[in-house]
Amino acid sequence: MRTPGKSMDFDYFISDLLPKIKNTPVINFMGGEPTLHPQFNEIFSRTFEAMPSFTSLGLFTNGLMGDKALDLLVSTAGRNGALKRKISFAVLLNWQTLDNISEKNHERCGEVAEIFMRANGYSITFSINLYSKDQDIESQCEQIDAIYQKVGLPKDQEYRIRVSPAFPIVGGESNIYLPIRDYPKLGRKMSQLLKRFPQMAFRFDCSFPPCFLDEIEEDETDLVQRFYFHGFKQVPELTEWKTQDLYFGCADGSPMDIDSKGDCFNCFPFHEMQLGNVSEFKEVNSIASARMGARFLTSVFEKTEVKEPCKSCPHYMVRCSSGCFAYNFI
Ligand code: SF4
Ligand code: SF4
What we know:
single chain, alpha/beta, pyruvate-formate lyase- activating enzyme, 8-stranded mixed beta sheet, 3-stranded antiparallel beta sheet, 11 strands, binds iron/sulfur cluster
């Protein structure tokens, strides 16, 4: 549930929204910062209690929650929480740099990460926003690796850092986004980091623009398999790309965003393109998602006019549909 600038009303959540979403296979709490909602604990607990087994619950956070929210989340991550109920629970911790967060907050964020890892190492994923080819991704990765080493990740285990290119926001105010031309430079930095940290891998959730790997050198091709796309799919060896039907582009079918009024959007860059409202649907299920997904693709894929560098790119319409569609609308 995304609540841009506004808090969801508690009564609306309990009586209108929760009954419609409770059987949805994936529920993610997003923000702003969801733990800042004054009734966060109640909303989170009621959601968790209402969910059936074999579904997924996620929380996107900056890690600066108060102790009350932290206690609840750690007990949900622990043995007697989600594991017992067979619900997969994931905390996505947005790892900030020292540039944009105070040292004290950064320390707290690290502490919170360690607490989650000790409760259940699988419950936490670090997330890094890619906003500039010059950003200090090296320090961000160093700090994350140091936490994994401190809590004693076994040497034969891999961990995946979620990376999310900062996409343009369509309509509204302009934002800082990562230009597509800079993807190969940042991809180069990331592959060097994979060499330095042998347990590290990178995971892209919605689209994985293959030009991130354009500057991989011949003796580095094994690193390609330490990139994941659409959340969990391993990028195949480069030699297989020519003979496989691969699609790295915008993963339609991803969970819909729902805002504080129940309005539905495909994703943050298109938050001004309302696709429906939960009141239209008996349940927010696969049928509702397919309908909203079809509306989204009709607008963004059919009507898209591709620009450079995608227009001349050898990956375009072979395995990539121009990265994130938002770039075609700015
Ligand atoms: S089509 Fe665009 S985003 Fe996709 S790989 Fe090529 S340049 Fe990158
Ligand atoms: S348009 Fe596609 S790639 Fe871009 S943010 Fe939305 S889901 Fe992700």
